[in-house]
Specification:
It is a single chain. The protein has 231 residues and is an alpha+beta fold. It has 2 domains: 8-62, no CATH class; 77-224, no CATH class. Helices cover 19% and strands 29% of the residues. It has 5 helices and 12 strands. A 5-stranded antiparallel β-sheet has the order 4-5-8-9-10, covered by helices on one side. The radius of gyration is 24 Å and the shape is elongated.
Length: 231
């Protein structure tokens, strides 16, 4: 441990110190330059923390430690904003078969079921889902025909999924999709379809009937214009 400390102090030199202040309502941050003196390093007079200083600190972190997805953008990515405090990602899956799990109380057997096209919206730590008709999303969206969903908002269950280190966009997508699909479907907020969701789900092993979908009051244009970012 001593050798590691020696290496750090030999190769890295202090250049700035950030000091934060707060009261019951506000925060204030100052940056202090670190100056070399004969007796060692001395912290200089503070000044308000600037965007340039924050950017310099942020850029010093290697992508190795990035928590936000990066790299080539997949063809199914519709929108992303990775600014700190504004993170939002929208992507879609075309219709396909999915492995689905259910609690015993629903009396639906676990297995692969056909599902319609789905749009995922990750806003911070929240996940919303919508359905669409056809192979690619158009402006008109529909309510997601699933349990554990109320007004598009997903009730995240207890699926044991680990967030990837240094994630690509596809890694990020898989993480959130697994959190949704690997959780047992257990409860219904509001009926999201025309008909009985249990019966419709049971019948969708070979084909999903898009005619049971109910229109959503949110359109794809709304999502891309961030009109539902606070939901």
């Amino acid at each position: 441990m001593r050798r590691i400390d020696d290496k750090i102090y030999r190769e890295l030199k202090p250049f700035v110190s950030i000091v934060g202040y707060k009261n019951q309502e506000d925060y204030y941050f100052e940056s202090h330059s670190i100056n070399k003196r004969d007796e060692g390093y001395v912290m200089g007079v503070g000044s308000p923390l600037t965007v340039e200083c924050i950017s310099e600190i942020a850029s010093s972190f290697s992508v190795e430690f990035s928590m936000e997805p990066h790299g080539c953008t997949p063809s199914n990515l519709l929108y992303f904003d990775n600014r700190v405090g504004h993170q939002k990602y929208i992507w879609y899956n075309p219709p396909r078969k999915r492995m689905m799990y259910f609690t015993q109380s629903l009396n639906i057997e676990d297995g692969e079921y056909c599902v319609p096209g789905i749009i995922y919206v990750v806003n911070g730590e929240k996940l919303n889902v919508y359905a669409f008709k056809g192979k690619k999303p158009k402006n008109q969206l529909f309510k997601a025909p699933y349990f554990n969903v109320t007004d598009a908002a997903v009730c995240i269950g207890r699926a044991e999924v680990t967030y990837p280190s240094n994630p690509s966009f596809n890694d990020f997508f898989k993480y959130w999709e697994d959190k949704f699909w690997l959780t047992e479907f257990s409860h219904l907020g509001r009926n999201p379809i025309k008909g009985n969701l249990v019966l419709v789900t049971k019948k969708s092993k070979e084909k999903f009937d898009e005619e049971v979908l109910l229109l959503s009051d949110i359109t794809l244009k709304d999502l891309l214009n961030e009109k539902e970012s606070d939901k």
